[in-house]
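Minutes, project check-in
Item: structure for the 611-residue chain
Input as provided by the requester:
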Amino acid sequence: MNNLRISAKLAVAFAAMIGVSAVSSIVLFFSLQQISDAADAATRSMSLAAKIETVMAHMIDQQNSMRAFVANPAETSQAESYAETQAIVDKGLDDFAATTQVPEQKARIEVMRKAVLAWRAEVGDPIMAMARNPETVEQARELAGKPSLGSIREAKTAISDAAAELVAMRNATRDAAQTTANAALLIGGLASIAVAVAMAALLGRTISAPVNAMNALMRRLAAGDNSVEIKGAERRDEIGEMAAAVQVFKDAAIEKVRLEEEAEGQRRQAEVDRLERERLKAIEEEQDRIAISALGEALDRLAGGDLTHRINVEFAPKALKLREDFNAAAAKLRNTLQAINGSTSGVRSGSDEIALAADDLSRRTEQQAANLEETAAALDQITATVRKTAAGAQDASGLVADARKGAEESGRVVDRAVSAMGEIEESSKQIAQIIGVIDEIAFQTNLLALNAGVEAARAGDAGKGFAVVASEVRALAQRSAEAAKEIKGLISTSSEQVKQGVDLVGQTGSALQQIVKQVADIDRLVSEIAASAKEQATGLHEVNAAVNQMDQMTQQNAAMVEESTAATQSLRGEAGELAGLVGQFRVGEGDIDSNPVHAAQARLNQAMRAA
């Protein structure tokens, strides 16, 4: 224990007390758990015992209902009560079997169930049936008066006795667990008190007693008692460091006393040979005085924290070693504190630079996060626009496809129109031929009518009637010829118009074919545009997702940078406190101005002003 630091001793003491408390708490917890389990089990057993008593009471009620019905079969309510109590008994047995967790009790409840069923099959139901028959009602009354629940009572008694034993056993378990809990609480408390007392005694023996002893030694040493024995210098804790420092002061005091004694001896020596060495003695006394004064002043300056003071006066050769030892000790102590100061300043300077860099990184990270957020928003808008464009291109592709189908259908209609025009032209030619035939017939009819008129004129009065007929036939033939001529002209005009219509329809068909071809090309281009827009939308969505992920990572980096900045500020504060403690010692001229801590602080302030 003497080699452990004070913090380690305190940690061991608290760990011992916590360990004892933890062990007692664990034992107490498990004991209380056993008490709770035993109490629950006992309550469950008592509840089941009460439930089986209720079942038995309902069984007796069923028997009483049977006897009441046998006594007065006209009272149908007793028969209904018999059936109702039967259902209640069955439900109670089922609830008991479902609730109990003891296999033996489950077996006993089955025995009781069989006894109940046997009673119903052999006693209850047959007697109820006999009571409903007037011829057997007297026999039923005789049988109903006999005791018949013996086996059921025995099964119930076995269950109740077993439940009572379980309750007693669980109460015993609960009492044992309670005893264990009380013992754990008592022993744990006593052990905690004992460990606390032991740790207090141990800490008092290893910390308080050595510190008090060291204070007493330092008082005696300050009073001039150089015979004190410095104990504990071999320890590796703070007490050992204090003992080593006190040993240095003791050695210096002893050396001072030795020098004084040596000077006194020299004075006695000079007194014996005063006449011969009076001048030398005076010189030596002066040197001793100077040495003692210089050493005392140096010790006072050292006690005041001034590590820059050195003994520069000339000592006598016999005191020269003392001056060199003191200067060496002061220089070593000064170098040690300067090294600590340098390390502290390095830590402080590094923490300042880290804090400055972390602040700069935090600002850049925040700016980058803002830029990424704006980029993500812009990409969202672009993605939405491209998606809308893709949707429009898709719709345009559908419209172009519909237009293509309409153009193709129009082309087919035009083809059918051209075919119909051709058929009309052929029909017109045939009609023209038929009209020509009719014209010839009218011409021949006119000739025949003319000949008939001539012949009728030759016949005289006998041919007048025939002449009139011939005249009418001739007139009819002329009208037919004129009508045929008009129809022929109309057919010629219609044929010309049909030819023009055929040409126009053909041109329309060619134009529609060209339109269909161009619409097909447009459909292909629009489909390619829609596919390209869809691919662009997909790519922009992936880019947007990547930018969002980068935004999240950048925000996380910003949070980590803020945590690093806070940790660096904490380190900077602790380094400043350590530098303040070390700064209490003077280690050289201009130590405040040339202190690396102050220089680093100045550089940091200048950098912050520049930022």
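Outcome recorded: The chain has three domains: 6-213, 238-334, 335-600.
No further action items on this chain.
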